[in-house]
Amino acid sequence: MYEKLNEIKEKCLNCKKCPLHASRTNVVFSDGVANSKLVLVGEAPGYWEDMKGLPFVGRAGQLLDKIFECVNLSRKEHVYICNTIKCRPPENRNPLPEEKEACKEYLDKQLEILKPKIILICGSVALNSLLPNEKGITRARGKWFDGPNGAKMMPIFHPSYLLRNDSREKGSPKWLMWQDIKEVKRMYDTL
Ligand code: URA
Ligand code: SF4
């Protein structure tokens, strides 16, 4: 598994398949543990991710780590993290359809090699890549879908969305995230 992953990583590090290669500082391939039951797929690298070459290391990433911590999961031991796009779009704009198309083969291969039991689809960009028929993250979040190799997939809100919505009241995005992550942990413990 590690050898195959490294092969794909090496390809990504040298990739020039889409124009994002020209403005990147680092390719952001993954973080966390490869032989994990749980893979989280985010959107695209931001400023800090591009600087460090690791996914989810900025403010949204810190919140994501806290959310996992609440259910005793961590990227050091239990979770593998990657993105739909491996290079940072300028000014953090949404990736263009042709950029997502160009990069999709790497995500597909990552998932094929990792064969996770659970795939968390984090935010609307990842939702659009992995479940293109779903109408939006607000409607799709919290539900289980069938994924590749028998994986269960659940869309969840992106932590940057939670950073913009402070309320913890019942029905708020943070409250919904708490329901979702508890359900994810429940499923994780049964698999
Ligand atoms: N947001 C993402 O979707 N991915 C990252 O790696 C960082 C922020
Ligand atoms: Fe290649 Fe993906 Fe980077 Fe585009 S975003 S250059 S397809 S690795």
Account of the 3D structure:
With 191 residues, the chain is an alpha/beta fold. It has one domain (2-190): Uracil-DNA Glycosylase, subunit E (3-Layer(aba) Sandwich), CATH 3.40.470. It is 43% helix and 13% strand. It has eight helices and six strands. It has helices at residues 2-13, 47-52, 59-70, 97-114, 124-130, 137-140, 159-163, 173-190; strands spanning 31-32, 38-42, 79-83, 118-122, 145-146, 152-156. Strands 1-3-2-4-6-5 form a six-stranded mixed beta sheet, sandwiched between helices. The protein is globular, with a radius of gyration of 16 Å. The mean pLDDT is 97. Bound molecules: uracil and iron/sulfur cluster.
List keywords for this structure.
globular; Uracil-DNA Glycosylase, subunit E; alpha/beta; 43% helix; binds iron/sulfur cluster; 191 residues
